[in-house]
């Protein structure tokens, strides 16, 4: 019995040693303090931060400097080719001895432009608290309600409140609460706050090259974007890239009367239709040989994909179609493949403006969503080879008169916009297991794991430049009207976000 | 010898009897008198006649009444549902005994609207005489030059001078010259001058029903349009009709992010491309079974078609393509078949406005040029059957939300504009032989015979309502800028037009 007690004592001592401080009850800490952080939130949200308007950036940098320095961080505004990016870091009093020592967090404080007339409030830059009324409409309620409690379904409406100032505010609140509760993080924390994300982060990769040593870390977490539609806790391991091509086919060099030349002058819309139709089957699968080469989804990944609680029926109802394309066995699987999507197609006019002509050209805009296995150069060259196989000469400009007379079938193929690259972090690596543990501490259950989200983010060059494992930790409600009018943040997500930050910053090393 | 002389005398007497008056030398008559008719021309051309502007019509009716009554015609302004049409007729002093007794001529005095700023002269309603300068540009010359002679390559520039007031003025000049030279026409001449042709002749068929007895005739000649591109004398025996259909295919009911839904939400542009591509082959031939049924071009017709002096190389150079579609063996043959031409195709946006979306719908505007063998109802039903064969449900309106969820493939098919019918008069019938003889007297050679022109004219319901043989006698130069700025009439065509009118009005019966 004594021996047993001794063993227990030793075990307890070891445990105590392993975690230097008793495990904090995150939930009670957040609930105790949260009402003190709405003032901070309000103060930051009233600062416009549209990256198109240079003068709006500096006040945000000033505010951030003060906020992070108050929490013991050293800060810098790092010059770039565009607006400066904000950098803050804090070393731990007692460093961890595990494999993860330095954590880098990426967020952005710039917000989308606004169209104030579309907002149902005085100004997008004057935060408003709303609850959903009996008729389903959002109704303004007094901000001071937040001092006596909150309903997780209430929302704060303001530009950038979810994309992406909210997560920054959650971090600041979490750091403050930890200070108040004397909870230390054993990690060297680095925070980089972008000022140009909403304009495509054009200078970020270059800045990373320049500040690579400063940003060095063991693991990068991107605290941006919305959770899974179900609003369940979510981690995202990758996203597709994008390349955009433009195809043009040609008819007569000026539009011709369709009576006089219909049946004689070649029709560019028919050419384009025949070309596009030849690239995919009835179910939306690309039929160009080799297009999907290199993609293999193993049984484990397939299991994780299948575990995402998507509702095909909800998507179907929401989007309004009878049956989806059949590129993957389900929605998540479809996103693991590159796409070949006709995003625009125009030849002459329709409706009241339609003329009885044989038009001169047809233009198709196509986007290829890229996955890590599909090099965009290879995809574009496969498309070119396919088009040439249909008897076309491919040019990278309009044909000359001589070329029109010489080649019966001409396509102009250009790339319209700069490419964005894909990224994907493997499931099961150490940072994944560590982060998953933090999420389980926060929510008491496994997060939804998104292997690859369909959209593209401008910070991928940054992720790739740093060459370290990266996982997105989306915190806000997906239905936040991001990029549109009436952007909002659900209070339940705000509070859970603070808790998530505390869990991550205090997460012990895992096995 | 005596017997022979007697025979010759009797023969001469008979000949004299057969043609009551000596055969006039049309060329010398025209050359002698033509300089006296430019004043008339000027007077009529200064009257605007845009059918969209009601007040412009009456002064033209007044002018025509005076002009025709001066030439011994009785006239009427026949009320219709729109502007009145002008009618004039004159019975012969000595009627012909042959099969053709009454000739009906259709022309129109209304002209296209004008954009004065695009005209290289003070006003489209102030006729200007021009010659082509050394640099190929048209240069104004003094109107009085016409009093001392003319160069056939000079042109008169004014709205409606070729389309279609010119032929009316040629008739008036011809009638006057015949009066001066005491040449009578043995025909009952009826002239109907439309006031709404350029706005689609919406009330003409109805007016014909009402005035059918007044318009009764043995042969209808339509003195409108331009000669063959070669400017050689031309007769046109028919024209294609037109029906327009609009197809719409559907994707998600609102545009979706192509990252999130590319590979999953069906793409309407792909659907449309696949549908359109399935309707025609690589050479532009319709592959829908039965589409060309009923059309057969016999050896004689094929010979006449082949005799039209088209230059495929000129068309190719002018339009700028390497090879034409292969519906017919040559250009004229292509026009004997119905077309299925994509005149407009739009799905979302292109260029700077392109978004990375899966669009919600694709719309194709299609025109079917009709020939007499192809009932438009039959063609449209063949197209419908073809689309249904591809697994589509066809609606005549947008689908409801329920239908979107129920049917994987939906097409909306509507007819956008009212149809225009085709017409064709057979080669070799009596009026053709008679008119050809008149043309040979005018020009000393066979006219080019166009079996069917590609375009559609709004007066076909009128032709069909009258149910009599009809042939177009185009008189003006084809490069007359009809419907555009700087409309003009070549003086050579004006003079030959007067001669053509005299030849027709004095043409004897043929065998």
Automatic annotation (TrEMBL), chains A, B:
The keyword Disulfide bond does not apply. Residues 1-20 form the signal peptide. Residues 238-389 form the Peptidase M20 dimerisation domain. InterPro entries: Cyt/Met_Dipeptidase, Peptidase_M20, Peptidase_M20_dimer. Keywords: Hydrolase, Metal-binding, Protease, Signal. The keyword Heme does not apply. This is M20/M25/M40 family metallo-hydrolase. It comes from Runella salmonicolor.
């Amino acid at each position: 019995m004594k021996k047993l007690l001794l063993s227990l004592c030793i075990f307890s001592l070891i445990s105590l040693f392993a975690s230097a401080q008793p495990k904090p009850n995150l939930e009670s800490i957040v609930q105790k303090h949260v009402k003190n952080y709405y003032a901070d939130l309000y103060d930051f949200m009233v600062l416009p931060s549209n990256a198109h308007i240079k003068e709006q950036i500096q006040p945000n940098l000033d505010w951030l400097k003060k906020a992070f320095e108050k929490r013991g961080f050293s800060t810098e505004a790092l010059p770039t080719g565009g607006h400066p990016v904000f950098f803050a870091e804090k070393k731990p009093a007692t460093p961890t001895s595990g494999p993860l020592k330095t954590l880098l967090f990426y967020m952005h404080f710039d917000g989308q432009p606004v169209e104030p007339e579309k907002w149902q409030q005085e100004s997008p830059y004057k935060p408003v608290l709303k609850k959903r009324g009996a008729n389903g409409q959002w109704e303004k309620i007094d901000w001071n309600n937040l001092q006596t409690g909150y309903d997780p379904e209430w929302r704060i409406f303001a530009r950038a409140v979810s994309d992406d100032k909210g997560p920054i505010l959650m971090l600041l609140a979490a750091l403050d609460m930890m200070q108040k509760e004397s909870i230390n993080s054993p990690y060297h924390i680095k925070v980089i706050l972008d000022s140009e994300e909403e304009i495509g982060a054009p200078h970020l990769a270059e800045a990373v090259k320049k500040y690579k040593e400063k940003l060095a870390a063991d693991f990068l977490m991107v605290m941006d974007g919305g959770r899974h539609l179900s609003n369940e806790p979510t981690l995202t391991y990758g996203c597709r890239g994008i390349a955009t091509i433009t195809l043009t086919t040609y008819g007569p060099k000026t539009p011709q009367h369709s009576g006089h030349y219909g049946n004689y002058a070649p029709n560019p819309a028919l050419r384009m239709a025949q070309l596009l139709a030849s690239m995919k089957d009835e179910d939306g699968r690309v039929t160009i040989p080799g297009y999907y080469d290199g993609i293999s989804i193993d049984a484990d990944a397939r299991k994780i994909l299948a575990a995402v609680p998507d509702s095909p029926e909800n998507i179907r109802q929401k989007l309004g179609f009878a049956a989806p394309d059949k590129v993957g066995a389900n929605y998540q699987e479809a996103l693991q493949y590159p796409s070949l999507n006709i995003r625009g197609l125009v030849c002459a006019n329709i409706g009241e403006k339609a003329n009885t002509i044989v038009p001169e050209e047809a233009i198709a805009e196509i986007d290829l969503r890229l996955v890590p296995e599909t090099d965009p150069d290879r995809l574009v060259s496969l498309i070119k080879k396919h088009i040439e196989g249909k008897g076309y000469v491919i040019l990278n400009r309009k044909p000359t008169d001589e070329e029109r007379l010489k080649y019966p079938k001409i396509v102009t193929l250009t790339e319209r916009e700069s490419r964005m690259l894909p990224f994907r972090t493997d499931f099961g690596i150490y940072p994944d297991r560590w982060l998953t543990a933090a999420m389980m501490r926060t929510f008491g259950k496994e997060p939804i794991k998104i292997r690859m989200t369909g959209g593209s983010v401008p910070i991928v060059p940054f992720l790739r430049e740093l060459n370290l494992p990266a996982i997105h930790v989306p915190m806000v409600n997906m239905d936040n009207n991001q990029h549109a009018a009436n952007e909002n943040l659900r209070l339940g997500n705000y509070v859970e976000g603070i808790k998530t930050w505390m869990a991550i910053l205090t997460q012990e090393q895992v096995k």
